[in-house]
Amino acid sequence: MNKKYKVFVAIPKGTAVFDTFVAEEVRAYLEEHFEVTYNESGRKLTKEEFRRILPDYDAVITGWGNSMLDRECLEGNDRLKLIVHTGGTVGNLIDDYVFQNGIKVLSGNKLYAESVAEGTIAYMLMALRKIPDYIEAVREGNWRTEADLWEGLLDRTVGIVGVGTISRIVIRMLQTFRVKIKVYSHYEVEREFLEKYGCEVATLDDIFSTCDVVSVHSALNEENRGLVQKKHFEMLKDGSLFINTARGAVIDEQALIDELQKNRFSAVLDVYIKEPLPQESRLRSMKNVYPLPHMAGPTLDRRKWITKALIDDMRAFFDGTDELELEISEEYAKRMTKM
């Protein structure tokens, strides 16, 4: 039924992103249901190229770093009905014009969230138990001593900064560990959710001064830039753990570095203001920091599943289904990371 609809895959063929998100089995599934054209240029297309190409297609599949599909790019295009983004946030991909003209937007955001949430729990356990440190010690011929301090997550107090798609999954996953959860959000969180998962709404000051683990999940926008400040890092309890899997600029990175140098608490950092993290950054060498190369999620094995799920939603849309599992609403798009 969908074979009459034309889809343009904008992710450049021959790249690692294409090969993982649009693997051979995914291509076969996509081509089974749609008439498909691929970006054969080996590079990302410009807005002007999209302006020329997209009027011939019913849907476009995009990836990380895609040119913005906005009024300038889409004005006068009466055919395009669906923008399908294999990335998470669409904050830097589309503008209001898309929604004003009835174009539906799909994204892998919900599935990214599952993977990032999984990564966040892994980071908590890794750092509390100091797993990399003990692996290194054993490899060097050493062992642990009874004076060593390694900890667990069970029955701790965890602070969640930002209540969105990712952190809601983190909160659900944390139920296994019987933790006390405090949450901070710019937006009102439904009472039903708070009661179901035993969450207490708190201020940033309360979270940073009382929690054993603080995990940041706020989107990066003008409202949240520099949200976590010097005073918050100074409030962290001795021996606590700070985790950031959101965006580097949500926090005052220099203030964090300054406070980490006092060796009072530890940190797992997956994101930074500048990426890749500069070679000269002190975050690379501090013993109380576990620096990771922006890899909380999605893991590579999830990429083809994300595209497959998006294709399922594409099929549902062109078959006339109103409710789509991975649709991004205009309201939610405005709250997503834009930088």
Terminal-residue CA separation: 39 Å
- Strand percentage, roughly? 5-15%
Q: Sketch the major β-sheet.
A: 7 strands, parallel
Q: How many structural domains?
A: 2
Q: Compute the CA-based radius of gyration.
A: 22 Å
CATH architecture of the largest domain: 3-Layer(aba) Sandwich
Total helices: the number is 14
Instruction: Record the strand order, biggest sheet.
Output: 8-7-6-9-10-11-12
Which fold name fills CATH's third level, the topology of the largest domain? Rossmann fold
**Uncertain spans, ≥5 residues at pLDDT below 50?**
none
Name of the CATH class of the largest domain: Alpha Beta
**What order do the helices and strands follow?**
EHHEHEHEHEHHEHEHEHEHEHEEHH
Average pLDDT works out at 96
How many beta strands in the DSSP annotation?
Answer: 12
Give a short summary of the structure:
With 339 residues, this protein is of the alpha/beta class. It contains 14 helices and twelve strands.
Task: Describe the protein's topology.
Blueprint: E1 6-9, H1 16-21, H2 24-33, E2 35-38, H3 47-53, E3 59-62, H4 71-74, E4 82-85, H5 96-100, E5 104-107, H6 109-128, H7 131-139, E6 157-161, H8 165-174, E7 180-184, H9 191-196, E8 199-201, H10 204-210, E9 213-216, H11 230-235, E10 241-244, H12 253-260, E11 266-269, E12 289-291, H13 300-318, H14 330-335
Parallel strand pairs: 1-2, 1-3, 3-4, 4-5, 6-7, 6-9, 7-8, 9-10, 10-11, 11-12
